[in-house]
Amino acid sequence: MLQGKIALVTGASAGIGRAVALKMASYGAVIGVADRDEALGLQTVQDIIKQGGEAIFVKVDGRVPEQVQSAVASIAEHFGGLHILSNNIGIQRYGNVAGTEVDVWDEVMEVNVRSTFLFSKYAVAHMQNKSASIINTSSVQAFSSQQGVAAYATSKGAIVSLTKSMALDHASEGIRVNCVCPGSVDTPMLRWAAEKFAPSVEEALINWGNKHPLGRVAKAEEVAEVIAFLASEKASFVTGAIIPVDGGLLVKLGVD
Ligand SMILES: NC(=O)c1ccc[n+]([C@@H]2O[C@H](COP(=O)([O-])OP(=O)(O)OC[C@H]3O[C@@H](n4cnc5c(N)ncnc54)[C@H](O)[C@@H]3O)[C@@H](O)[C@H]2O)c1
Known about the structure:
Belongs to the short-chain dehydrogenases/reductases (SDR) family. This protein has 256 residues and is of the alpha/beta class. The protein has helices spanning 15-26, 38-50, 65-79, 102-124, 150-170, 188-197, 201-211, 220-231; strands spanning 6-10, 30-35, 55-59, 84-87, 132-137, 175-182, 185-186, 218-219, 242-245. The strands form 2 sheets. It has a 7-stranded parallel beta sheet with strand order 3-2-1-4-5-6-9, sandwiched between helices. A two-stranded parallel sheet has the order 7-8. Helix 1 (15-26) packs across helix 8, helix 3 (65-79) runs parallel beside helix 4 (102-124) and helix 6 crosses helix 7. The longest helix is centred in the middle third of the chain and has 23 residues, at 102-124. The termini are far apart.
């Protein structure tokens, strides 16, 4: 499905980004793994090579323009171009507006929104091949909130708006831009959150899973599959789409 494609996957050391890197490699793409976590990023690269694929790791802090510009350029130079960008870098922080420190607000915006902007900004110049795809990772929290996620929910709403702007701005260049909005996905981020709020992580995952009509949280591979589809020519007429991957969470009212 992705034979001959060159993909840059951010946040690919762990969680959804790692699953996207492995999934796209399994469909034939070569992968630039971009993340700030070098040890885990090199593990993703090794696992791609083990399954018969090709990948390189670039260490980058997604908040820093010079680092992102050089990461994008080095991946495009190494493989000879760029067709796909999958933006997954993100952090979760908790608090309402009164309780969120200003530096925490800025951190969430910089990691979640600025990194998506920066990778997209520098990738577009390498994507002038009339058949490119950018897929941003937002969240159900762009549309429906819970208490105490003021900064995170705002950042995810911004990613939806950015996706729509980019889809319009770059359609004439043949760059499709779409967005996935996952519900709860079993990743290190979700397990970190579970540790904060429940006596046991497994119990939290079961409880959160039960809130989803499909009765469980997602595996990262299930989100990666949708991202890989959006990256491929199979989605050649899809741009500006905001796609829930949420086990039905967003369609459920809070009453039975
Ligand atoms: N897990 C969920 O339930 C869930 C639900 C909806 C949306 N999302 C979104 O999916 C994306 C991936 O989440 P995840 O659960 O896989 O998270 P994760 O914490 O498991 O993985 C995030 C990756 O991003 C990297 N990263 C963080 N800050 C960085 C920075 N400044 N520069 C470079 N790399 C950085 C981390 O090293 C890590 O490898 C995020 O945008 C998140 O908001 C996750």
